[in-house]
């Protein structure tokens, strides 16, 4: 045990009577503890929300997607698609034709996003866990069917059990003047509704899945025209390596994107929010640590006689400075350790028992998700150490200067 730590510990723990300085130190310790606990919990909640969004996207989106850099469609020969299917790590490749269209059902109509997919789409089994009504059928006995999002079902009051009322899709004919009175202005498809799915994400509420052939006919696509290619990888595949292997076989007009890259804006927004909240809570810890500043300043005044005695015994100003810096570290780091332990305990209880719920029974999870990461613990510790040094330095420096004043 070093001399500065021994003396600082005596100042903090071995006071014969509790003074205002003692209570101020305890208040500072509690403030740092609460701020540290809040920082750990909030960062863990942001991590949980990020993981939740990844889980939502994984339940519907593919691992890799090939998209055009400009425009909505591209042309690719069948031979190239065969080569892409043979790339190591690619389990399924789904060809897609997608665009916006007008949907009409009985007396209702709304704009939807249609997504035409081939037969491999249902082999991915991603819709199995999010189907809320009906069946997963796109084509049966020569008839085309649509699988719709719950938002479309609610907007048009669609019932998959109603086999007599078709879902009508309209798309503007190229080169024709648009007119609601002229049927020739629109391409049209009629489909039955086989199932309804629900995804906890607003950008999927207007989605309608239909067979690729029906989508091509509706959108006016040629046999080699696509909106995108979606690839499901094998469980042991290296996503980055497969992405690079696919990109090498494609022209520069096409780009391969991962699931996270397709949702880059959302994850960037979560990261920015996490940074700003961390800065805000760091300032709260700084404000709470001001009590440490006042506590050390008054302690330096109270221990003037001790400082004079230590100076007479040969103590250098650097020793006095280290004593008060250690005192500040004991106050702040004790609060930080307690706050860190409480924060981790709250995260464990939330993850295990779901103390705080969303309040909506239709949510994919019933309670706020949390995920503790080691880098956040390191960040929290770094913030507390920096704030402790910043707050403790000036009182410690003032106490050290008292030696020079007494000697003069």
From TrEMBL:
It comes from the Bacteria. Residues 25-248 form the MacB-like periplasmic core domain. InterPro entries: ABC3_permease_C, Lipoprotein-release_system, MacB_PCD. It comes from Fibrella aestuarina BUZ 2. The chain crosses the membrane at residues 20-46, 275-301, 322-346, 377-396. GO terms for biological process: lipoprotein localization to outer membrane. It is a multi-pass membrane protein. It is found in: Cell membrane. Keywords: Cell membrane, Lipoprotein, Membrane, Transmembrane, Transmembrane helix. Belongs to the ABC-4 integral membrane protein family. LolC/E subfamily. Residues 279-400 form the ABC3 transporter permease C-terminal domain. GO terms for cellular component: plasma membrane protein complex. Its main location: membrane. Pfam families: FtsX, MacB_PCD. This is Lipoprotein-releasing system transmembrane protein lolC.
């Amino acid at each position: 045990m070093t001399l500065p730590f021994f003396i600082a510990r005596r100042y903090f723990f071995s006071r014969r009577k509790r003074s205002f300085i003692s209570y101020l130190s305890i208040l500072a310790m509690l403030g740092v503890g609460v701020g540290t606990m809040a920082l750990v919990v909030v960062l863990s909640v942001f991590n949980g929300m990020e993981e939740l969004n990844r889980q939502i996207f994984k339940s519907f989106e593919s691992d890799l997607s090939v998209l055009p850099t400009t425009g909505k469609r591209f042309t690719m020969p069948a031979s190239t698609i065969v080569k892409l299917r043979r790339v190591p790590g690619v389990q399924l490749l789904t060809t897609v034709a997608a665009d916006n269209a007008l949907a009409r059902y009985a007396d209702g109509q709304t704009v939807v996003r249609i997504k035409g997919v081939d037969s491999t789409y249902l082999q991915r089994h991603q819709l199995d866990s999010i189907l809320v009504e009906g069946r997963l059928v796109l084509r049966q006995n020569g008839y085309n069917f649509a699988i719709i999002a719950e938002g479309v079902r609610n907007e048009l009051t669609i019932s998959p059990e109603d086999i007599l009322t078709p879902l009508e899709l309209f798309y503007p004919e190229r080169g024709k003047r648009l007119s609601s009175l002229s049927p020739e202005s629109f391409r049209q498809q009629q489909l039955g509704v086989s199932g309804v799915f629900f995804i906890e994400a607003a950008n999927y509420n207007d989605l309608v899945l239909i067979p690729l052939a029906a989508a091509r006919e509706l959108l006016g696509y040629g046999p080699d025209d696509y909106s995108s290619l979606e690839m499901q990888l094998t469980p042991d595949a290296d996503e980055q390596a497969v992405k690079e292997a696919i990109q090498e076989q494609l022209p520069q007009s096409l780009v391969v994107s991962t699931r996270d890259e397709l949702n880059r804006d959302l994850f960037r927004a979560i990261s920015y929010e996490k940074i700003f909240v961390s800065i805000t809570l760091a300032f709260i810890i700084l404000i709470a640590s001001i009590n440490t500043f006042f506590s050390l300043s008054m302690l330096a005044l109270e221990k003037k006689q001790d400082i004079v005695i230590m100076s007479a015994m040969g103590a250098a100003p650097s020793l006095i400075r280290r004593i008060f810096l250690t005192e500040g570290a004991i106050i702040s780091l004790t609060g930080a350790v307690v706050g860190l332990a409480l924060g981790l305990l709250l995260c464990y209880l939330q993850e295990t028992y779901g103390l705080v719920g969303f309040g909506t029974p239709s949510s994919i999870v019933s309670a706020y998700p949390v995920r503790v990461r080691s880098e956040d613990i390191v960040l929290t510790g770094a913030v507390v150490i920096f704030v402790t040094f910043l707050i403790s330095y000036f009182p410690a420096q003032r106490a050290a200067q008292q030696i020079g004043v007494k000697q003069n």
